[in-house]
Design brief:
The chain is of the alpha/beta class. Helices cover 44% and strands 13% of the residues. It binds NADP nicotinamide-adenine-dinucleotide phosphate (NAP).
Length: 310
């Protein structure tokens, strides 16, 4: 991280610190009749996003990996808000399942007003998917890239429509190397693996934003706050103890993430705003390494190839 700090502008650092203390913007706009696809709604940020959107009248389609948790989550939204809720199952460490989920969505819905790519994970050790991809890169970046790519036509058909990438200040940890996306030749650490995946998501978001310019579809990224969720619970007992007993005391209620995404999804002043990174509801300049468009175009090509989209 320190090696990346030297490239920062002071003004951007100051903005980041101010944003962390800022009062958040809010929207009270209803979303009746709007169809929202949200990934990873069984806990944490995704659950709060689904709750927040449903509380304003939106219909929710979840993309989760666990059937029982999805049933429970949908039932809860029906009970609490009388919301329309359904779900599709896909494990995001299997891009074939993500492509199938996208195909099912395209077949089932003529319009999607909002797509929120939220699924994410953090792993302290290097693991690989059954296709040989580094798992965090696959789950956090390639899967959301695949879903977005495959839903582009439906989103264009549904204008004005919005795409929100749940990103993270963790992109600032860096770690992305275009010639070693799969961590074959470098030492892996959890923070660098997470940073690499979130950086790739941002770099490809600028490309999506260009592709969608003038279409009526916007795409933006959000850091959902440092909030109390289940992230990292797949890691070892020491990590979990530290997280539960030390880190979690400093974290906020994830309800703020749901409120922020509802604002980003509905605020009229954001109708034509695209290709921005928000710290909750405030625009922020991401890390310099996440703004390198030349690297971004390389990651774009590699993502299309690795995700089997060519
Ligand atoms: N928590 C924070 O402070 C924080 C800060 C910045 C960014 N974020 C981002 O917020 C997003 C949500 O994370 P969270 O903190 O809410 O964590 P979380 O509580 O662990 O929720 C993660 C969600 O993603 C799902 N998921 C994980 N791996 C999956 C896979 N392979 N296939 C399908 N679904 C999968 C989980 O499903 P299961 O219930 O089946 O595990 C759950 O629904 C992530 O993108 C994360 O990077 C979080």
């Amino acid at each position: 991280m320190l090696k990346y700090l030297k490239d920062y502008r002071w003004a951007d650092m100051r903005q980041m610190l101010e944003n962390n203390r800022a009062t958040q913007r809010e929207s009270t706009l209803r979303m009746d009749g709007k169809l929202c696809v949200v990934t990873g709604c069984t806990s944490g940020v995704g659950w709060e996003i689904a709750r927040s959107l449903a509380s304003f009248g939106a219909s929710i389609v979840m993309v989760n990996r666990n059937k029982e948790k999805s049933e429970l989550a949908c039932n809860q939204l029906r009970e609490d808000f009388g919301a329309k809720c359904s779900y599709l199952l896909a494990n995001f460490s299997n891009l074939g399942q993500v492509r199938d989920a996208a195909d099912s969505l395209v077949k089932a819905y003529d319009r999607i007003d909002l797509l929120v790519n939220n699924v994410g994970m953090h792993s302290t050790t290097l693991t690989r998917t059954s296709d040989g991809l580094e798992t965090v890169f696959c789950v956090n970046h390639l899967a959301s890239f695949t879903l977005t790519w495959k839903l582009l036509d439906t989103m264009r058909q549904s204008t004005p429509s919005r795409i929100i990438q749940v990103n993270s200040q963790g992109h600032r940890f860096g770690g992305l190397n275009p010639s070693d996306l799969n961590w074959r030749t470098r030492h892996y650490t959890g923070l660098r693996g997470y940073g690499a995946a979130k950086t790739a998501q941002l770099l490809t978001m600028w490309e999506f934003a260009d592709l969608l310019k003038g279409s009526g579809v916007t795409i933006n990224a959000v850091h959902p706050g440092a909030v109390r969720t289940h992230i990292g619970s797949n890691n070892g007992p020491l990590y979990r103890w530290f997280n539960d007993n030390i880190v979690s005391r400093t974290l906020k209620d994830p309800v703020i993430a749901g409120q922020a995404v509802h604002y980003l999804a509905t605020a009229p002043e954001l109708e034509t705003i695209s290709g921005k990174y928000f710290n909750l509801t405030h625009v922020e300049t991401p890390a310099p390494h996440a703004l390198d468009r030349q690297v971004g175009r390389m990651i774009w090509e590699e993502s299309l190839r690795l995700a089997g989209l060519l």
